Amino acid sequence: MKNLYTPELWFVTGSQHLYGSEVLKKVAAHAQLVASALDADTSVPVRIVCKPIVTTPEEIRKVCSDASASPACAGIITWMHTFSPAKMWISGLTQLTKPICHLHTQFNRDIPWDRIDMDFMNLNQSAHGGREYGHILTRLRIPREVIVGHWEDPVVRARLADWAAVAAGWQEMRNLKVVRFGDNMRYVAVTDGDKVEAERVFGVQVNTHAIGDLVEVVNDHTDAEVNALCTEYADSYTVVPELLKGGERHESLRDAARIELGIRSFLEEGGYGAFVDCFEDLHGLKQLPDIAAQRLMADGYGFGPEGDWKHAALVRVMKVMGAGKPGGTSLMEDYTYHFDPAGARCLGSHMLEICASLAAEKPRCEIHPLGIGGKDDPVRLVFDGQTGPAINASLIDMGNRFRLLVNVVESVALPEPMPKLPVARVLWDAKPDLQTAAQAWILAGGAHHTGFSLSVSAAQMESFAEMAGIECVLIDENTDLRALKQELRVGETYYGLRGL
Q1: How far apart are CA 386 and CA 220, in angstroms?
Q2: Which of 231, 249, 283, 378 lies in disulfide reach of 242, CB 3.0 to 4.6 Å?
Q3: Read out DSSP for 89-155?
Q4: Poorest-confidence range of 3-17, 336-350, 476-490?
Q5: Could you give the CA distance from residue 175 to residue 4 in angstroms, rounded to a whole number?
Q6: Rounded to an integer, what distance in angstroms lies between the CA atom of residue 7 and that of residue 308?
Q7: Do the Cβ atoms of 262 and 220 come closer than 8 Å?
Q8: pLDDT, tens digit, for every residue of 299-338?
């Protein structure tokens, strides 16, 4: 996966000088042991760096200030080993700009019934030390993740790993650059939005380059580079004979390869993590960059069609959050419904640009006519999607704020072959059912583009929204439309007032 940054989490342990130097030595040793064990856990997707224990307001303020200033630090994991008076934390916490995970744990798993004494009690005070710390975070209205349990428990490790992935995704969004090749699809509302406000809220930079800037880079690649990429296509996919060397459409494959080389070079040279295009603004390219978008997404880049920069950014962030997990993440679009009373389903695709990370089998590299865009027939990868639990997520601009909408779905196998549909596709069962989910989605103003993922959970998307300070609306098996309408009214008031 293409990584533009290498984030890390800082492990910060709180204590105080009341208990003497020997206790503090043990606290420091325990903190190092716990942090090292978590860092060594392969399920945790980022490095965990143990910082010196903090025992005074000055030490706390410094570590929080350093974390905020560090481009590598994606967040802090805090643990109150002993009682750490919370007034010491006010100055540091109020200037901290990174996400917080409160790990409410203790060094020992069990109470040593036959030998517990006051020395043990003074050292192992997480039970009430964490409550003191939790109070000040609530008093200061600071969002955070709270994970309770022993640090060796696999459930605790899994929750920490999920939060770490979200923190890495938020760090990515704070540093993300999205390039737009051309403008928004004409007259379309939901794909547009306030790019200035997006940079203020999320940190993401969204800027436009003329398509001529890209065409120049595309045309700059050599025949040898094109030949090498065509060979890679042949090795990676089942390429139809007409596209292979000597086939009557081989030149189309070469054109597609040259476009991919150009976009990849442009992204790498500009430090971009995501890109968008629009079929109405691709003058100078021989065909739409379809296999290019599919392959670049598979390498971790975000992509949005028709100028949809919000979902290009969202796909990139979800790629980072799901890195290393089974499944995949892609741009998606609800394309057509199957309203069978025995089981309604939604068929998702997007013309041609669905990420190959979702493929259930080796993709087929094919060429077919496309009725829009006025270009040569585009080369694309065709496949059926994997099955399993998944989500659809949409980031929308509500005018006075951003809203993240998440629908829990189940990706299912196609009941019959689709030999005449020349695009990648995914079929899913929307929760709680298609009719309710679609109605809820429309009431909430969700977009027709989404980030679809088999490797990122709805809970992680909720954590991401909390880090960003934006509204999150969840549609799942518990969704009730009457309650959802009330939730939307409350959100309108709460988040609207926050924006004043």
Answers
A1: 37
A2: 249
A3: GHHHHHH--S-EEEEE--S-SS--TTT--HHHHHH--HHHHHHHHHHHHHHTT---EEEES-TT-HH
A4: 3-17
A5: 9
A6: 27
A7: yes
A8: 999 999 999 999 999 999 999 999 999 999 999 999 999 9
